[in-house]
Amino acid sequence: MSVRLDEKLEPIYQDVLRRNPGENEFHQAVHEVLETLGPVLVKYPELADQKIIQRICEPERQIIFRVPWQDDKGEIHINRAFRVEFNSALGPYKGGMRFHPSVYLGIIKFLGFEQIFKNALTDLPIGGGKGGSDFDPKGKSDDEIMRFCQSLMTELYRHLGEYTDVPAGDIGVGQREIGYLFGQYKRITNRYESGVFTGKGLDWGGSRARKEATGYGTVFFVQEMLKARKESLDGKTCIVSGSGNVAIYAMEKAMQLGAKVIACSDSTGIIVDEKGIDLKLVKRIKEVERRRIKAYTEERKHAKYVEDGNIWEVPCDVALPCATQNELNGKDARALLKNGCTAVAEGANMPCTPEAIRVFQDAGIAYGPGKAANAGGVATSALEMQQNASRDSWTFAYTEKRLEEIMVNIHNNCYETADEFGAPGNYVAGANITGFLKVSKAMMALGLI
Ligand code: NDP
Ligand code: 2IT
Description:
The chain has helices at 10-19, 24-34, 38-43, 45-49, 52-57, 105-121, 142-156, 175-189, 210-228, 245-256, 279-288, 296-299, 330-338, 354-363, 370-373, 375-389, 396-420, 427-445; strands spanning 61-70, 76-87, 93-99, 127-133, 165-168, 237-241, 260-265, 269-272, 304-307, 318-321, 343-345, 366-368. By secondary structure, the protein is α/β, with parallel strands linked by helices. It has a seven-stranded mixed beta sheet with strand order 9-8-7-6-10-11-12, with helices on both faces. Strands 1-2-4-3-5 form a five-stranded mixed beta sheet. Helix 7 packs across helix 8, helix 9 packs across helix 10 and helix 16 packs across helix 17. It is globular. The structure holds NADPH dihydro-nicotinamide-adenine-dinucleotide phosphate (NDP) and (2Z)-2-iminopentanedioic acid (2IT).
């Protein structure tokens, strides 16, 4: 990470490295925020005196526990699960649960740290947290998923509550898993506490448009970035990495706004369909059949499948990384620019490496960081909590309209803050500073806690 930090911030970063050894993704997320906070401490020296940054970098609470479960053959497995309750200055801890074999404390801490600022950007009353497990849901039966979720919740329930900590989905956790987790919570606590989870099914307290919200929100953000440059999505060629929840609904909204989406992927390979991705087919393969994206070419014979292919080498105007962290590096960024890409927005959390971000910023293209661009998911989670609290259920159109307003607002706040702090067009600085100031002010008001 070659960008030097301000002299007041470097010792704080060194302390984070010392206190959190081996947690590379967490270090990366902290560095990216600190890079942009120098001018904030000049304008608000009291934040340094109150050690607000040091406090934000230390989670309020970290829970690590054993999850034993039995597979269909009766064999016993032991997984490890986490919930990092990072910051509750603005509201109950809020953030998803990730089930993926790569999960360890450093991943959950990076995600929880990002979540603090993202949630602050929504302007809704939600603090930051994240959880997950190194459990691999791939190839597991429904019963195995249920037993794992029940075992996990048998420990986690005591740390949750609609005013305490409210989980949702993330990689490997969708409506099916939220159902099993919520069911076990309800059973143990004897409370139908809808507001303790978001991403629920529509029949049992979920919000319309939550499933679509992250992907739709990312594309609304792109639309605003393009508008600021007197452009639009209409007629643009678009590529989207991943083919999970965020990717599918990013593709859907991009198509609705007139873009042509020609490529998507999963962790085994990429699909390129020059005639335009058949989204109905992707939904069936991924949401219903839970198969690999390779199956796409069984029905769309003209489409190309490249095992281990690099999606960022496919020429496009707009690129939306929607799979996972550090999936787009400096070399990929240069390939995108060479092929004419003019806008990148992160549906995933931290998908672009620090070098890739610098390449985009040096080239002056529109680049929307995840904290801002993918905040539509958690914002709609907060709308789900609102509906649960008032025992109401809004229409799809109304919920989507609220989501769009929130994304426009996030875009404008980031844009204006970047300008105010001398970094016009820099949405990274705009998002970090806007989110940081909101959390800091609340922390100052609440005293030394
Ligand atoms: P899903 O599990 O629904 O989909 C994840 C997709 O990314 C799959 O296509 C998966 O492929 C691919 N992927 C995951 N891990 C890797 C990896 N290590 N290497 C290559 N491909 C990988 O998750 P979501 O769509 O919910 O999440 C995607 C991203 O969006 C994550 O970064 C998440 O944190 C972020 N996000 C999600 C939100 C939400 O509301 N769900 C909100 C905001 C951000 P495969 O199936 O082969 O593993
Ligand atoms: O990264 C994220 O913002 C999410 N996975 C969604 C969190 C939420 O609580 O809806």
